[in-house]
Amino acid sequence: VAPARALARRRCRARRAAALAVAAPEAFEVPVRLNTTPHSRSTRQLFYADVVASFAAAVADGVPRGRLWCEWTELNTETDVYRVGTLLELVRCMATEVATAQGRNVRVVVQGSMGRGVFQGLPLQLSGVRRLLDMMEWDEVDGVELVAGDVPRVRIGALDADELLPDDHVVIVIAPQNIKGAAIMPALEALVERAEAQGTQVFLLNDKLADIPSAEGLMGVRGRAERREYAASFEEIYHFRLVYNKPLFHPIYGALRRAHDHDWQVYKRFNVTKRTEEYRVIKTFPQKPTREELSDAILRYKPPPKE
Question: Tens digits of per-residue pLDDT, 138-151?
Fold first, then answer.
């Protein structure tokens, strides 16, 4: 079993290295047939490489607070095809790249149960994630897994400022979000404050920090502007989401993407033939486009006349 597992890891590293080698933030080709799930391995690797390229660049640039929003079909929690394995594979690729290529110590954290008494619980998206993280297999360096050894290069823990170590260089927070009756913001603020005090970079992956008002008076109008301002203090280093005509998720009209230190790109999906399609960049924005600007760019686009 061990030789087969080692061979599988080498093949995975080779595929990831090949994908990263061709990852160009300004020339990303959106995979096709994204409404076909589960996605193929090659489709996932393309997305992983695109995200990792921006994440690694942001870490190298010393971004103190960053956020990444990744919402292709398998990572859209509003659908019934959400796949938590895709999220964890993405986290593993991000942590592995920074730990091996840049020599950083990476801490991967996920929030625990919140609330009190019978109202204690977790968001459905994060249910079982911590256990799966502990069960995952990681790459090896000098025959030792990244999460093992006397000084692990990748550490897994809770969203708790007290768990942060002085030699943690990068923290990845998986999908921090509020629930009805409990707010994640105090714990997140404490973690970020301690991290910044010791020079640790913090990155949020698919965060949902919008208020969820409750009967107990939590996350009400008072203090909402400050909470939104704090959430906006995280620099958006990567963004990808598909564009639909909500509330429907079919057909896909296009996509919105931004890589680190690049403009926002609007893609439109074109049917080339009855069975083939492609995505083309039709417009770029220096700032994140509003919903109206995004809709106008896609729906009112007219292709140039053929010569």
Answer: 888 777 788 877 77
Asked if residue 256 lies in contact with residue 69, where contact means CB atoms within 8 angstroms, the answer is: no
Backbone torsion region of residue 103, taken as left when φ is above 0, otherwise alpha when ψ lies between -120 and 50, otherwise beta: left
- Asked if residue 188 belongs to a domain, the reply is yes
pTM: predicted TM-score of the whole model, two decimal places: 0.87
Neighbours of 142 (CB within 10 A): 5
Per-residue pLDDT tens digits for 150-207: 778 999 999 999 999 999 999 999 999 888 777 888 899 999 999 999 999 999 999 9
Query: CA torsion angle for 160, 165, 166, 168 (degrees, to 10)?
Result: -90
Report how far residue 128's alpha carbon sits from residue 83's, in angstroms, rounded to the nearest whole number.
13
Token pair, residue 252, equals 């896909």
Domain residue limits at 227: 23-238
CA atoms within 13 A on the CB side of 63: 24
The CATH code of the domain that includes 158 is: 3.40.50
